[in-house]
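ARCHIVE CARD
CATEGORY: sequence design from structure
SOURCE FIELD: tokenized fold
FIELD CONTENT:
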């Protein structure tokens, strides 16, 4: 793109199109002066369409919009058989005048650059023109060859060809006079000074600029529409309306986070300009994510979510999610410079999540990057949930910039708060530790699970829900997260006093019934909130005197497989049953398995647990309760939405109330 300085307004469409072509196609070190006047010795000035200061010479270019068959001779020209003026003769005359002016100005030891005339015949924007030259050396060119003629050595008519030096170029500008002043005038829009063109496409220009009212400067972006460069009036009006709509949107969003400030539209008759304050930071596609700390990334994500929510609440969407339209700074500033409002809210959230997914994954926080993965696929649109998670991670201060990998052993500290003391149980994929809260000095339990990354979303939702509810027979969740530099998951729980259901040696009369009804009431509450345990077995029921507690939600799959599901449940039926039915099956099977001696069970399959149930006195258990348990173990029990579990299993209200529920 050549350096283009306009001294006047083009007089017709042919000149507009020609100047645009020359400015776009000529090299950067070329200078294009359009509608410029060449001073003469007599004091008069001769206007030329374009003056090109190039590598091999100075070209006086006369632009003609002829359409048809042009026959150009050395002296006479004709267009479709009609005589017309010889434009090359005029251009050569002006070139000789300019050369004479240059010779009078050159200092000793400096040669004047070669000046020659040239005619650029445009046709109808490069078409519908045929040029026939009597002499092939005549400098008359169509759009197909004009650029080559101006940039190649063969286009020069000089007998000796020498490149134009920097000193000669300065001499040409000095001869024309006030070039710098004109260029500054062209690059100034009110108090904005254009510095660098960032985008140029058929009338739409984006400039880097500075606001310079005097005494201080500030960086801005200028979106400009140049009316003369559009093909027709309708297209120019359509683009003008889009720019005005963008201005209205930005004004409506004034005060929202992530929305840059814009100044009023500027319309000087030739162009309309929207000034936008230069966004802080750099585009997202060149932002060095790897150089940022975890807290910086979390803060960037939080501010971006906050800005997106504010924009949505005012009834707009962004839509312009190209990486070069999103600016991010090291100080966690986020700004969206292309707010189009052309998609719905769900689509906007999905595009946002996809744009920021790389940053989210770099935080190494599963609850964060899993949300962005799901949102990018359209599986969630809950902005509040992830914003709360981001705020919690930042405010709690648990994300070290370079966390050390934790070795699971006695004395290890988990999540800055829990010190491991005794290993209670271990399997191939999980460990259960007794721990102590360091600051509070009270006992608690830490479970560590391996290879659970794929199940993180469901586990995260479950434990977030469990942590917010209270029931006397459901474990209290204290903390939940991922161990640093590993895929291992930890869950901190309050210490449940007692023993697992299968380890109790001395059982008093009535205790199992009380424990069973307590856990049944807990399941009733959980299922009403769409929370399911998914792993009920004797190892996950802690009993002490008159109290039973349900522990180890969801992730103890290897524990349940070892102690219950793989041992008793029919795998085919287990696969197709609902989650509530599985929990009820686990509850009944756990009590039957724990309270009936192995000698009465028979085999260890699904029939074995049914055989064990048959050892009970049906009258002693109650016929309704016995039949319900049998149906549950056979997967024939169907849950009624209008009854409590206690009622469906045959318990009266007085029986439930007598155990303190």
């Amino acid at each position: 793109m050549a350096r283009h300085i306009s001294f006047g307004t083009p007089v017709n469409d042919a000149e507009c199109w020609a100047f645009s072509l020359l400015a776009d196609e000529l090299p950067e070190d070329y200078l294009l002066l359009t509608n410029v006047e060449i001073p003469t010795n007599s004091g008069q000035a001769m206007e030329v369409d374009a003056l090109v200061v190039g590598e091999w010479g100075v070209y006086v270019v006369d632009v003609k919009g002829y359409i048809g068959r042009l026959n150009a001779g050395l002296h006479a020209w004709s267009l479709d058989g009609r005589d017309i003026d010889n434009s090359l003769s005029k251009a050569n005359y002006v070139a000789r005048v300019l050369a004479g002016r240059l010779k009078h100005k050159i200092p000793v030891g400096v040669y004047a650059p070669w000046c020659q005339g040239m005619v650029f015949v445009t046709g109808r924007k490069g078409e519908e023109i045929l040029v026939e030259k009597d002499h092939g050396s005549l400098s008359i060119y169509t759009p197909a060859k004009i650029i080559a003629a101006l940039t190649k050595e063969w286009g020069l008519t000089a007998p000796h060809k020498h490149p134009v030096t920097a000193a000669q170029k300065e001499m040409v500008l000095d001869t024309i006079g006030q070039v710098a002043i004109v260029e500054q005038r062209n690059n100034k829009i009110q108090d904005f000074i254009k510095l660098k063109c960032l985008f140029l496409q058929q009338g739409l220009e984006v400039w880097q600029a500075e606001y310079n009212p005097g005494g201080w400067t500030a960086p801005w972006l200028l979106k400009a529409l140049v009316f003369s460069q559009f093909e027709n009036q309708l297209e120019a009006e359509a683009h003008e309306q889009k720019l005005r709509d963008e201005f209205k949107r930005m004004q409506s969003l004034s005060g929202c986070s992530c929305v840059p400030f814009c100044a009023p539209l500027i319309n000087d008759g030739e162009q309309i300009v929207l000034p936008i304050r230069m966004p802080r930071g750099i585009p997202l596609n060149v932002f060095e994510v790897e150089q940022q700390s975890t807290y910086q990334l979390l803060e960037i994500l939080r501010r971006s979510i906050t800005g997106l929510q504010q924009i949505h609440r005012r009834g707009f969407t962004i839509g312009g999610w190209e990486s070069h339209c999103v600016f991010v700074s090291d100080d966690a500033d986020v700004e969206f410079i292309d707010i189009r409002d052309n998609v719905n809210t769900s689509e906007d959230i999905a595009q946002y999540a996809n744009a920021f997914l790389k940053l989210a994954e770099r935080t190494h926080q599963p609850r964060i990057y899993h949300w962005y993965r799901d949102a990018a696929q359209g599986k969630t649109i809950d902005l509040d949930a992830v914003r709360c998670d981001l705020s919690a991670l930042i405010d709690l201060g648990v994300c070290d910039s370079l966390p050390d990998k934790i070795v699971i052993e006695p004395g290890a500290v988990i999540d800055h708060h829990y010190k491991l003391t005794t290993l209670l149980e271990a399997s191939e994929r999980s460990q259960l530790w007794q721990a102590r809260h360091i600051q509070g000095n009270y006992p608690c339990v830490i479970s560590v699970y391996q290879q659970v990354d794929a199940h993180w979303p469901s586990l995260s939702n479950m434990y977030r829900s469990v942590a917010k509810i209270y029931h006397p027979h459901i474990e209290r969740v204290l903390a939940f997260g991922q161990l640093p530099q590993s895929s291992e998951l930890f869950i901190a729980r309050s210490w449940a006093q007692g023993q697992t259901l299968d380890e109790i040696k001395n059982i008093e009369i009535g205790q199992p019934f009380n424990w069973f009804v307590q856990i049944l009431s807990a399941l009733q509450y959980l299922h009403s909130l769409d929370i399911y345990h998914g792993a009920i077995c004797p190892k996950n029921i802690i009993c002490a005197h008159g109290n039973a507690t349900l522990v180890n939600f969801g992730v103890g799959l290897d524990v349940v497989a070892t102690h219950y599901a793989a041992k008793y449940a029919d795998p085919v039926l287990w696969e197709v049953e609902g989650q509530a039915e599985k929990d009820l099956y686990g509850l009944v099977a756990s009590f039957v398995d724990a309270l009936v001696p192995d000698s009465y069970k028979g085999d260890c399959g699904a029939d074995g647990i049914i055989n064990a149930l048959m050892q009970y006195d049906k009258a002693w258990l109650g016929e309704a309760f016995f039949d319900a348990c049998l149906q549950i173990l056979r997967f024939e029990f169907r849950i009624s939405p209008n009854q409590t579990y206690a009622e469906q299993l045959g318990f009266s209200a007085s029986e439930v109330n007598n155990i303190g529920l």
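CARD ANNOTATION: The chain has five domains: 3-185, 190-277, 282-396, 402-495, 500-660. Residues 233-252 form the longest helix (20 residues).
SHELF: design records, drawer C
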